[in-house]
Amino acid sequence: MSQFLESLKNRRSFYALGRDVKLSQEEITELIKDTVKNSPTAFNAQSPRAVILFGAAHEKLWNIVEEALKPLTPAEAFANTQEKLAGFRNAYGTVLFFKETDTVKNLQEQFALYADNFPDWAEQSNGIATANTWTALTTAGLGANLQHYNPVIDDAVAKEWNIPANWQLRSQLVFGSKEAEANEKEFLADDERFRVFN
């Protein structure tokens, strides 16, 4: 139990990321695949999807984000945006997490009593797969942070990597070598978050 909790505690948002990674791309890919496969989903729907980007593909993603944000960002603030995106671009890779929507629709049709819940359960499944992958990468010695530039980049991402129309982009997990420590984390008081009854 303590080893599991240590892994959770060590999973933090690392923003200073680099490319001094000891694992091979194949090892990282297998780690991500195994983690997503073994993350639970409601009704065993297996709706989370992942696209793993390394090298030029990883850099291309952050170029796409920059191009998408430029017309949406005030000119005086764009230099700060570019600096932030350069930090992501300097990382080793990115995992794009998607929700496969046809599975959700099929389950809604099969189980009408729970139809309203399946979209929420799919989001929960996606969150579990994402958090587990983040923790797995951390346990392997990498740093990561989670971004949400969807839906601004959805169309360009779909076009660039031929993403099926029934895959809905949900998040972008940036990963690489830890080049600086994570910020200190603050917690709410337990009595604000937990209730226990016998």
TrEMBL record:
It holds the Pfam family Nitroreductase. InterPro entries: Frm2/Hbn1, Nitroreductase, Nitroreductase-like. Residues 8-176 form the Nitroreductase domain. PANTHER family: FATTY ACID REPRESSION MUTANT PROTEIN 2-RELATED (PTHR43035:SF1). This is Nitroreductase family protein.
